[in-house]
Design goal:
The two termini are 24 Å apart. With 399 residues, this protein is an alpha/beta fold. The protein is built from 15 helices and 16 strands. The strands form 2 sheets. Strands 1, 2, 3, 4, 5, 14, 15 and 16 form an 8-stranded mixed sheet that branches. An 8-stranded parallel sheet has the order 6-7-8-9-10-11-12-13. Bound molecules: N-(iminomethyl)-L-glutamic acid and fe (iii) ion.
Length: 399
């Protein structure tokens, strides 16, 4: 058969079923950026393609970090110290810090500066085997700065071997120039920012922050209605600090995902499961904010709500530069099983982004691979630090 490249002598965690879909001593063949053949090495058809001997390494689908705020100016280590001294995330936000302090630093940065600041963060994630990453705006909070963040995100995808998926999060906080005129800002987002981002092809989805320190469910619904008018799927930061019915709201709008969910109720989770809305779990934010409410994992399992797991990489609540560390936190904090955690950064993360061509190792899927020097897949969740990733393949090409 005609292949471009073949990998042999590898154990494959295909993620095709809920127990990892392991193929021991497997082989994968790529053609035109896709997986053209996969199975036990003994069944590999004869071919003349170059071969990589993986020396017993494990191969997973390239990891997908499905919720990040990777592009921003400055950082918030000073607020971290304030929180260590007792201030809460909410208090800091209400005093004009938090998201608004990153907004000021982001507005002051050029696109090139935003890219330069984000590249080392991106590289840290890629080194661990990430091949697809979602990047949100949400620190511009005005037309040009929001678009600049999205352009910077697209530029990152052009500078590195990684697929970048963008979400416009203009409804992240009310900018100071709209203080006391929150409804007008929502209107501006819906009638001006979303249409422009859509027209320029800069946003793959629309996100919002539904919370008492951000936008109400009604305002969120208005943002979602604008997204729908422009044919864009939606996602939601939901029920992180209070239960504002965010899970049910996301489900009612057929959101791709609802994220955080620390305080979601079981009915909201049931609605998400019925709508196919993926629950994105963000244990980095739970840890950093020393949150004691955990997402209702039992209800997610009971209702069959798919769970994804992500870094939430952002300068405030989750300065997390390791998706592997999130696997560990997902298991230790949220009590996920190893297969649940690994599905959360592969197949279910793809679903959280609406991507049907990745997240599993199967014929016809993109040939995005992550190679690890480990004895068992559980090691990816077990180590607290360290990096067993020994290679990435993106679209069939060694990255
Ligand atoms: O996902 N929850 C809101 N947004 C971010 C935090 C943003 C920030 O603090 O800068 C999050 O946790
Ligand atoms: Fe977030």
């Amino acid at each position: 058969m005609s292949f471009d490249h073949v990998w042999v002598n590898a154990n494959l965690a295909t993620m095709r079923d809920d127990t990892l879909g392991v193929i021991e001593d497997g082989a994968i063949a790529a053609k035109d950026g896709r997986i053209a053949w996969i199975g036990p090495r003994a069944g590999l058809p004869s071919h003349a393609a170059p071969v990589t001997d993986c020396a017993g390494a494990w191969i997973l689908p390239g990891l997908i970090d499905c919720h990040t705020h990777l592009v921003f100016g400055g950082n918030r280590s000073a607020e971290f110290e304030q929180r260590l001294a007792g201030a809460s995330y909410e208090e800091i936000a209400r005093a004009g810090g938090g998201i608004l302090s990153t907004m000021r630093a982001t507005r002051a940065a050029t696109e090139a500066q935003l890219v330069q600041a984000a590249l080392p963060r991106l590289d840290a994630l890629l080194r661990e085997g990430v091949t697809t990453i979602e990047v949100k705006s949400g620190y511009g909070l005005e037309m040009e700065a929001e678009l600049r963040q999205l352009r910077a995100a697209r530029a990152l995808g052009a500078q590195r071997a990684v697929s970048v998926v963008t979400s416009l999060l203009a409804a992240h906080a009310v900018p100071p120039e709209y203080k006391g005129r929150q409804g007008e800002y929502v209107q501006h987002v819906g009638e001006e920012i979303i249409p422009r981002a859509a027209a320029e092809g800069l946003a793959d989805a629309i996100d919002a922050f539904c919370e008492n320190i951000a936008f109400t469910p009604e305002e969120t619904a208005r943002v979602f209605a604008a997204a729908r008018q422009h044919g864009l799927p939606v996602k939601l930061h939901a029920d992180q600090i209070t239960d504002s019915g965010g899970a049910a709201l996301a489900a009612a709008h057929q959101a791709l995902s609802a994220d955080h969910l620390e305080r979601s109720n079981a009915a909201g989770i049931a609605a998400m499961a019925a709508a196919g809305t993926v629950a994105v779990l963000l244990p980095g934010a739970t840890l950093i904010l020393r949150e004691t409410h955990f997402p209702p994992i039992a209800a997610m399992r009971e209702h069959g709500c798919r769970m994804a797991l992500s870094t939430d990489m952002n300068p405030g609540s989750s300065p997390a530069l390791s998706l592997l560390l999130m696997l560990n936190l997902g298991c230790t904090l949220f009590r996920l099983t190893v297969p649940e955690a690994l599905l959360g950064v592969t197949r279910h993360a793809a679903a959280a982004l609406g991507l049907k061509d990745r997240g599993m190792l199967a014929e016809g899927m993109r040939c995005d691979l992550a190679l690890y020097c480990i004895e068992r897949p559980a090691e990816l969740c077990y180590w607290l630090g360290g990096n067993p990733c020994i290679g990435r393949v993106v679209g069939g090409i060694r990255a």
